[in-house]
Each structure stands twice: as C-alpha cells, then as structure tokens.
Amino acid sequence: MDSDPIADRFRLDRVGIEPCPGCGDPVQAISAFGRVWHECPRCAEQEKQQRRQREKIDRALAQWAVVTPPTYREKIDRSRIHPTIALAMDLDFSSGIGLVGPSGIGKTRVAFFALRMASARGLLPGRVTAAEYREAVSLRHSGAKETASRAEELIRMAKWSRALLIDDIGKGANTPAGDEAFYNLLEHRRAEKLLTFWTSNGGSGWLRKKLGADYGPAIVKRLVDLATGPDGYRIFSTQEET
Predict the structure, then answer these.
(1) Domain segments of the chain: what residues?
(2) Which string of DSSP letters, residue by residue, matches the chain?
(3) Considering the entire predicted model, what is its pTM?
(4) Overall fold of domain 56-237
C-alpha cells in the first residue's frame, strides 16, 4: 500500500527514550512534523511556573500603572533627585525603604520607582497617603453605604497589598483613633512581612511631635522596622536626624 504523505506528516512515532535537552532526564521522545519532541514532566512543570510568573508580573505592572499618577510614570531624571534620596534607586527593593526630607526633592518619584521595581517581581502594588488612610478609618462606619464600602476597600488594600507605598506620613490632622489605626496598619504589615515603602517630610523627632506621645514613638519604631533589610537600615534622609 502506498504511503499517504499527508498522513505520514501528522503521524506520531515514539522513537524511544532519550535525554531531555532541557534538563537531561531520560524521557520519551516522539517524532512528529519533522521534529523530535520530548515528553519531560520536569520541564513542563517549570514552563508552567514560568508562565504563571509572567502573568503575575503583567498583572502587577498593570496595577502599578493604575495606582501611579501619570507624572510619576515617566522615566526618572536622576539629576533632578536629591543625591541622598537618589541612593535608594541603587537598591534591589527586596526590603522596604524610607525616604525623609522636605517637599520637592524627589521622594515620591523615587518611591513610585521602587514600587514599580517590586511590581516587576510580580508583587501586586498599592499606594495610599497617611491622610487618606486616616480618613478611610474615620469613614468606614459611615451611614452612607457607598462611602463606607470605599473606605473598607482602601483599608483592605493598604493592609494586604504585597508592595505598598505610604506617602506623606506626618501630614494632616491627627486624632488618637487615627494614630492607633495607623500604628495597627504598620504593625500588621511588619508581622506579615509585607514590602512597604514610605515617605515623610520630617525625621523621627518631627514625627514624634506630629503623632503625639501616645503613638508617636511606637509608629516611628515600626517605620524603622519596615525600612530595615538584611543589609541594615534603608532610610535615606536629607536631615541629620532620621
């Protein structure tokens, strides 16, 4: 019987056991479409994990674009960043950082850069100012259902984002309830080992005064904890006191 060239083209032939080109394991080799394919469970699982990681990174970077204002999505001109703050850009962002100094020196821009680098590792990012978090805490029991729902969503995002930027710590009015809630947020993220980047216009002494005697020292301690990595403190300050 004459062979059918079309059928021959689509026929699968097992050609025996061969080393996998990817990992070297002995696997079944199959000839098809003029090529030899190797049925390797180990390589198939690695490819699946790599695909999942790529999907995680794509989702995280898309989320970063959502939470980041357009002006902070632009490429950073390092010459316009205060030299001390710019040093943070040389880190690997596997641990949190703190950026301290007056307005206009590039703290927030560098913090969003750090958030993007974390997103590029597949960590879903979030962003909130300290004042926004305090306001959400005060509104979560609001009689207006939609307002309370938005507040709860923001609080949940701040608590559980795999990488979070907390901007402008120390700005705005303080209340004992707000200070307690903010401390609890920092303590939660420290305990859960969640990556946290933060900015403040003032150092530890300024924050203790702004945040009050009850929670100021404890909040400062947690901020230091969140900006400490295996290589030590990761707080970059343009002021003598951090």
Answers:
(1) 5-39, 56-237
(2) ----HHHHHH--EEEEEEE-TTT--EEEEEEETTEEEEE-HHHHHHHHHHHHHHHHHHHHHHHHHHHS-GGGTSPP-GGGS-HHHHGGGGS--SS-EEEES-TTSSHHHHHHHHHHHHHTTTPPEEEEEHHHHHHHHHHTT-SSHHHHHHHHHHHHHHHH-SEEEEEEET-S---HHHHHHHHHHHHHHHHTT-EEEEEESS-HHHHHHHHHHHHHHHHHHHHHHHTEETTEE-EEESSS--
(3) 0.83
(4) Rossmann fold (3.40.50)
Predicted confidence pLDDT, tens digits, the chain (242 residues): 455 454 444 455 666 788 888 888 888 777 776 677 677 888 888 888 888 989 999 999 999 999 999 999 999 999 999 999 999 999 988 999 999 999 999 999 999 999 999 999 999 999 999 999 999 999 988 778 899 999 999 999 999 999 999 999 998 888 888 899 999 999 999 999 999 999 999 999 999 888 878 899 999 999 999 999 888 889 999 976 54
